[in-house]
Each structure stands twice: as C-alpha cells, then as structure tokens.
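Same chain as my last thread, 94 residues:
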Amino acid sequence: MIVEVEFTNAVRAITQQKTIRLELKDGSTYRDIVAQLADRFPALIGVLIAPDRRTLLSANLFKRQDGQPVMPDQMDDQPEDGARLIILFFIVGG
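reply #2:
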C-alpha cells in the first residue's frame, strides 16, 4: 500500500520536504504512518508526534484528500491504498 503525506507550515520546515510517499504493509493503520514518520523524522517527536511514536500530539491531525479529518478515535483505522494525507499542525497555548 502506498500513502502520500503532505507537510505544511512548521512541519515542512523541520522535514525539509513538501510531500513524501510511504510504503505500508497491508492492514497498516494511521498509527503505523505516525510510526514511520517518527522513524524517518525523529525531530518531529515532541513537536508533532507524541513520545510513544504512534500518536499525534493534541490538536494535530491528518486530513484526508476528501477534506475529512482523521479524528483521534480513528487512528486505528486503515487508510486506503493511494490515500493522500495532509498533516495539520496547530500551535496551541496562551
């Protein structure tokens, strides 16, 4: 299965990439995508990715090509082959 991930904002600055293609095993989930991103871009841990390396930090999420977000309770779902995901990175605090 192939999934394309697009980086925006600060994430793009960290990764120095606009998009990447990930090759996943059949049955992989959104958490597996996060794990691959953590392996490939360790600088994202603590910024976008939680220390468990399988969860996005609060307020960050994937958006599917149809515009629908992948909510935290959907992280164990499987993306479609050929899916295009955009990482939405939000800085929160006050």
